[in-house]
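User: structure tokens for this one?
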Amino acid sequence: MKNQKNKILIAGDSFASDWTPKQIKFKGWVNLLADEYDVTNVAQSGVSEYKIWQQLENANLYNYDW
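Assistant:
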């Protein structure tokens, strides 16, 4: 039986956003984490604390381990 990966939700601003659309040659910490875990990343560059709160409000937190 294969081990199930922990599910992680990442919310936030540019610090947590996915770098791959920018075609940067190295992986950001979020992408490195996704190599080992089941990561859902809803972070966006340039958002305020209110928008980050909305990211969390719109996610079903019970679907994630972390």
